[in-house]
């Protein structure tokens, strides 16, 4: 199904479909090279969400700030390449969401365990806000909080479930958003966790 959450923001329920097993296998290979890690914010807090990346860069944070880095700071080596299957999934979701020719160069992969959350924020470390962000949810369901251009705009809540893909472009690209603390649970395929992939064009 296709649901418009805001202008430019489209929720494609169960869009992963029969690509689920191949997607999970590709993620296992990425995480074997670049394991999930909990990073520190510039303010010195350790994030509850664990992260890794694939593609020509990866989003990192430490005491010195947020940035995209070509290398994994844990290993000093480049992030694993983005598997073509992931790139194709993101491209086809973007197209269904109304954005033809999406060319993501980075995929940030977030892992939530029960209690993990992401506070309200904007994604603005990328150079081209004309490109959407495509997000894929796997595992336990999450309550996604979707605000507006101002931090004070009251967020609306959407439940994101295993296999859902969302496309965030147009005016919604710079909307504040976050994830409420993950509820306990056990997903039949993914276990007691939620993964979220965000495909981005950073250059
Ligand atoms: C709306 N991740 O990694 S995905 C992030 O579920 C992030 O892990 C959340 O926010 C997660 O930055 C939310 C959905 C999402 C991602 C980026 C957006 C929604 C967005 C950018 C602009 C507007
Ligand atoms: Fe975000």
From TrEMBL:
Binding site for 2-oxoglutarate: 110-112, 194-200
The protein's enzyme class: oxidoreductase
Cross-referenced InterPro entries: Alkb, AlkB-like, AlkB-like_sf, Oxoglu/Fe-dep_dioxygenase_dom
A Pfam family recorded for this sequence: 2OG-FeII_Oxy_2
Keywords: Dioxygenase, DNA damage, DNA repair, Iron, Membrane, Metal-binding, Oxidoreductase, Transmembrane, Transmembrane helix
Cofactor: how and how many bound: Binds 1 Fe(2+) ion per subunit.
Enzyme Commission number: 1.14.11.33
Protein function: Dioxygenase that repairs alkylated DNA and RNA containing 3-methylcytosine or 1-methyladenine by oxidative demethylation. Has highest activity towards 3-methylcytosine. Has lower activity towards alkylated DNA containing ethenoadenine, and no detectable activity towards 1-methylguanine or 3-methylthymine. Accepts double-stranded and single-stranded substrates. Requires molecular oxygen, alpha-ketoglutarate and iron. Provides extensive resistance to alkylating agents such as MMS and DMS (SN2 agents), but not to MMNG and MNU (SN1 agents).
PANTHER family referenced in this protein's UniProt entry, alphabetically: ALKYLATED DNA REPAIR PROTEIN ALKB-RELATED, NUCLEIC ACID DIOXYGENASE ALKBH1
Protein's name in the database: Alpha-ketoglutarate-dependent dioxygenase AlkB
Species this chain originates from: Bradyrhizobium erythrophlei
């Amino acid at each position: 199904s296709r649901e418009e959450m805001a202008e430019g923001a489209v929720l494609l329920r169960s869009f992963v479909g029969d690509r689920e097993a191949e997607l999970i296998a590709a993620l296992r290979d990425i995480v074997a090279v670049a394991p999930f890690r909990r990073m520190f914010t510039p303010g010195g807090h350790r994030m509850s969400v664990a992260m890794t990346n694939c593609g020509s860069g990866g989003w990192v944070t430490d005491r010195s700030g947020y940035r995209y880095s070509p290398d994994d700071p844990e290993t000093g080596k480049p992030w694993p390449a983005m598997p073509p299957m992931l790139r194709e999934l993101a491209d086809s979701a973007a197209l269904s969401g109304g954005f033809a020719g999406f060319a993501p160069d980075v995929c940030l992969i977030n892992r939530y365990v029960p209690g993990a959350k992401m506070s309200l924020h904007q994604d603005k470390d990328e150079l081209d806000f004309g490109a959407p962000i495509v997000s894929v949810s796997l595992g336990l369901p999450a309550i996604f909080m979707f605000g507006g251009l101002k931090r004070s705009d009251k967020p609306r809540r959407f439940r994101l479930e295993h296999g859902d893909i969302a496309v965030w472009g147009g005016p919604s690209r710079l909307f504040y958003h976050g994830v409420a603390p993950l509820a306990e649970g056990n997903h039949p395929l993914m276990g007691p966790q939620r993964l979220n992939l965000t495909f981005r064009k950073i250059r």
